[in-house]
Amino acid sequence: MTDINDIIKREVNPFDVINLKPTNFWAEEQDSKLMVESIHKNAITEIEGLLDLVSKDHRSRTVLLAGDSGSGKSYLLGRLKRTLNPKAFFAYILCNWADSTNIWRHILRHTVDSLIQVPQGEKESQLMLWLKSLTAFTRSDIKQRIFNDNFWEALQSNRQKFIKHLKETYKKAGIYNPDMFFGVLHDLANPELYDLACEWLRGDDLNEDSMKEIKVKTCIDTEDAAKNILANFGRISTQTQPIVLCFDNLETMPLLPEGFMDIQPFLNVNTTIHGDNLKNFLVIISVITNNWNRHLDRIFLADKAGIHKTIQLKPISIEQAEALWAYQLQPLHQLANPRPEVPIFPLNRQILEKTYPGGKTIPRNVLTLGREEYQKYKGSLLDEDEKPKPEPVTIQIKVTIPDEKTVSKPIVILPPPPANNQDTTQAEFELLWQHEYTKSQGKITKISLLSSPDLIQTLQQSISTLKIQGVKTKLLSGKYASYSLSYQHPRNREKLGIVWTEDSNMTSFYHVMNACQTVIQKNICQTMYLIRGGDLGKPNMTGNQLYRQIFTNTNHIHIKPSLQSIHYLATYQSLVNSAKSQELVIGGKTINLQRLETLINESEILNQCTLLQDLGIVSKSNRKPETNGKEGKDLRPVRDFLLNLVKTQSYMGVATLISQAVSQFPDVKESEIRSLIEQLYQENKVKTVNPEAKLSEQLICLIP
Length: 704
Description:
- By secondary structure, the protein is α/β, with parallel strands linked by helices.
- It starts with a helix and ends with a strand.
- The relative contact order is 0.10.
């Protein structure tokens, strides 16, 4: 017999494990517990109808998905992918392009990044499924005549025949650069060339050796080229499934000086998709209703006409709110014996009816209310006998008795009981940071996965947050302007410049170095930082020679960034995007960008970023690493996680605390985690609520 209340005492609040920020549905699989079938069912039906129309006539269409902040727009996109992936290829595109002059390149990069993902239940990527479904290969007579049963073996050995066949099949489609494009598609079938082919398709600036391997003369380095490559995907796939481009959170796009979104370049893209014969695309644009309405009078009629349907997400009912609670509480109920008769225990419907007397609300509000009410109930379970007793304090005071001398007498003072309303926002923020940082580590396995403009954007956001003055983009001029920024030295007011390029192409590297030299010669900045972890070219190459002139024995500095630094910058950028979209929720409260900046500065998390240290923007940390001695592993994040989790839960099971840490830090041994918990005991940070209980039932809480 395991009573449900005992489970509630020891387990983490189930509403705390929900990620209430927008999520790339390919980067992190959504929690199916949030998928209540009836919620936004009509919206899914309408979008599926539009998708079916695209499948029939191959004419691209656009749907605007509007809703209040917290209405579930991002989750709906993920649900659409889960539901409709068998009949379409899905691309997730966050609207956070660094510069409105490289939108097409941003879209192409993220489309290809999505196409190389493997759908649930499939063994191959969307890209390979798309390639194999082309009519050039699915007609039975073609298959028998050219490829017979050894389809991919023939592909690998007949490159020219492959290209010629596709050119003949799609000669009326108007394919852009057909020889290069079809040649790269051929290389997708070669496991040794697959990665290079994907990098070319996503617009990476490959070096000369890589280009020779896949037999291309140029890379996709202009907006026009990116647009036409994207168009190629649609033009040759009109007999296959459509491609769904999901643009999430328009609010993350660049802002104009007056505070409005720089929305016109994006609307130009959408109008171009319909007007320039980009076939077989369904475009879904997710936006907060108020933000869209605020920009309506700035949108041209022609661009409004490019939106075929607007779907407004409706509030959910009390019954649907109950279902959200029930799904979230179900794992706890399954641990109990007997199971609670009420599926939303320890919550109840009356809470919903009292909080939402109109009978309608939005999913985020339901989940944050559930979190708050669950925590209240959990706190009520700890009776006075279990609560940690405040230790009495004895002090000596001097008392003068009339007609007698002054004497000292002891007085016992009982401290007030610990407050139950402790603000845990900072602790919850640091837990969220750790969660997002772990995601960044898994997603970004090498620096080149991010474009140079994206890297500069992440750096700019962090520098601005740290209150550095005079931050401006585009220190360089010309094609590589978005690779650079400038700012003012915090002490001597000098103008400093940063250029960040990870392009492996040495011709591009030369042009970047040439642009740096121009800036220095014009004395536009006093000190130039080059951030580059990649190759600098051979000594006899012009780019390398220019590099040495600028950065050898001068006051200009070359910094090689660590991958860990990229994880710091990318993690913060992710939180910034969420704050801009009004989707960042911490402790049940929506956090705006200003509040996020306060939290990041109070926690001093960015002070751990070695790149920011090397730039002199933050001081090098004096905090000594807490290592396990043998492997030299830094256990500070683990210790902080343990302490923060106890802070946010009020109290919890020791065994649960250990399992949560093991899950978050799979490379840390359980013995190391137990040792860190013991340290927290010794430092009087935490204590056991019920020390007489056996270890598996002991509860741990914070010492106020």
